[in-house]
Design brief:
171 residues, mainly alpha, disordered C terminus
């Protein structure tokens, strides 16, 4: 699974909603301001310009711009740190208190079968569904535990857990 596929599954409306959650202050704080500015092809980056360029961003993502999808996801997620912390705490994944966890964390063991549905059930309604779905899919992409985008219960997408045989083979 790639992040372009996640955005494609969420659609243009979902992408536009996610762009509206981006905080320029958070982008600066977490060091992704320049990356978003460059990827969005804006000379100056502010909320109004980012929102105005959202349809162009969507078109580029729909055309397969994986780097833009990755950077835009980072921008959305760092702008919603309290949500990220809540999800990681819910899943029992160790993190630094700001929602970041080292790549060598044994987080895959915490992602048991049905983890995506559990997260969606817990956080849908408390947070925007597009944000919940983006993070579920981003976490699945980051940990290689989802092969296709998860779109919520009844959407016909798998809710995979880590492949135990693949883990054993790589150990």
């Amino acid at each position: 699974m790639d992040l372009v596929g996640v955005y494609s599954a969420l659609g243009q409306r979902g992408c536009n909603k996610l762009v509206r959650t981006i905080s320029i202050g958070a982008l600066r704080t977490y060091g992704v301001y320049e990356a978003i500015k460059i990827r969005s092809r804006l000379h100056t980056l502010n909320r109004q310009k980012l929102r105005a360029t959202s349809p162009k961003l969507w078109k580029r993502i729909a055309d397969g711009d994986e780097a833009l999808a990755r950077d835009l996801s980072e921008g959305v997620l760092v702008s919603n740190i309290p949500f990220i912390v809540a999800v990681l705490d819910f899943l029992g994944i160790e993190h630094d208190g700001s929602g970041f966890f080292p790549g060598d964390t044994d987080s895959m063991n915490r992602l048991t079968p049905g983890w995506a549905s559990k997260v969606f059930g817990e956080f849908s309604g408390r947070y925007p569904d597009d944000l919940v779905l983006l993070y579920i899919n981003h976490l699945g992409w980051e940990t290689s535990t989802l092969e296709t985008p998860y779109l919520g219960p009844g959407a016909g997408t798998p809710d995979a857990a880590p492949d135990q045989s693949a883990q054993a083979a790589s150990a």
